[in-house]
Amino acid sequence: MSDEQIKLIEKAVANALAGDMDAINDIEDRVTRSKAKAALVKAKRLAKATTPAEDPSNTDELKVGDSAPTEKSLSEKVAACLNEKFPNSLEAEDVNGHIQMKGKNWFKIAQYLRDNPDFLFDSLQCVTGYDFGEGEDLEVRYNLHSMTHNHTIEIRIKTDRNNPKVPSVEQVWRIGDWFERETFDMYGIEFEGHSNMIRILCPEDWEGWPLRKDYETQETYHGIVVPKVKDGWE
Amino acid sequence: MGVLENRFQDNVVVASMDKLLGWARSTSPWFFQFGLACCAIEMMATAASRYDLMRIGMIPRSSPRQADVMIVAGTVTMKMSLRVKKLYEQMADPKYVIAMGSCATSGGPYWQHGYHVLKGVDLVVPVDVYIPGCPPRPEALIEGLLKLQEKIQADRPLTKKIA
């Protein structure tokens, strides 16, 4: 885009913001005109985002905000509740979109979160393994969702790399059975209390934990070469 | 030679038995459908009415005991590779293998970094025809099958092979 075009667009957008839409509609070149329109939309959105207080339609919300200065997020509510019910179960006090927890009471806490009428997390949506790198810890992340209240939280539990063990929640949410087996398969994190802690995707006699950062593929599997062997095919 | 008796004049040799057998076998190679990934969809399309494999005498079978050709269609994982080998061994002789698609021929997109993928099914079983493509179109599969038919036709099952 030439400097001339940019200047033209800027001028047209400024005029349009002042209320004169003809400034944009009069641009003859079709491409430049559409670019100017896009710029106008962007400018309007920016103006809206930076000055919400001036917008008269927002005054109702502001009044509510005055009476209760900071509405607690769901994670904070859950964290406060857990702190009260299960002291010393949280690893970090500050909640930043997720709850960092110790593994110790996880089974009981999971039951509590599922059955408490305020939370009713009846669905375990995802279990994720996470590797922080060599010499660092492993982590398991649980995404819980409540069908009744339609709210979601994330819970993270760190565990030692050399002896990774986390209590199983298979008995709390049945889907946890396969989720935990998959996490075990990929990261070697053992879920204590799981009824069938074996690999789910890799063969049973596979060596190593494929998604760990220090994973190295085994050379052979039942006499079959695993890494690439054919040369000259690229 | 009950079929050919008294049909021709004396001393006329129509064709060698070998050729006859080769022709018969090549025009009815029933294939063992081995759909492992997206290639299986193309294989199904090939067998269905638009491309109609039946016109070249091929019927999909789901048991290795009834099949002459194994079409390995898709990504063969290390876990599956042992099963592929076992199923190949269960097929009755003479048997043929077609590696369909780039995964079965060389590992495909998992060529370099896929720890769990077999880098070509020919590491486990002998392959007769390779069909490139990701996945190959039905035309490509049919081309490969015709190549296989040529190969079967060239076989001489009754002739003594001199080593």
Can you walk me through this structure?
The complex is a heterodimer of chains A (234) and B (163). Chain A is α/β, with parallel strands linked by helices and 234 residues long. Chain A has two domains: 3-47; 74-219, 2-Layer Sandwich (Beta Polymerase, domain 2), CATH 3.30.460.80. Chain A contains seven helices and eight strands, in the order H-H-H-H-H-E-H-E-E-E-E-H-E-E-E. Chain A has helices at 3-17, 22-25, 30-50, 59-67, 74-85, 106-115, 176-187, and strands spanning 99-101, 123-131, 138-146, 151-159, 165-167, 190-192, 220-221, 224-225. Chain A has a four-stranded mixed beta sheet. In chain A, strands 5-6 form a two-stranded parallel ribbon. In chain A, strand 3 and strand 4 (151-159) form a beta hairpin. Chain A is flat, with a radius of gyration of 27 Å. In chain A, 21% of the residues are buried. Chain B has helices at residues 17-26, 39-47, 78-90, 101-106, 138-154; strands spanning 31-35, 60-61, 69-73, 96-100, 129-131. Chain B has 163 residues and is of the alpha/beta class. The two termini of chain B are 29 Å apart. Chains A and B meet through strand 8 of A and helix 3 of B.
Notable traits:
heterodimer; A: 234 residues; alpha/beta; Beta Polymerase, domain 2; 2 domains; four-stranded mixed β-sheet; two-stranded parallel ribbon; 8 strands; B: 163 residues; five-stranded parallel β-sheet; 5 strands
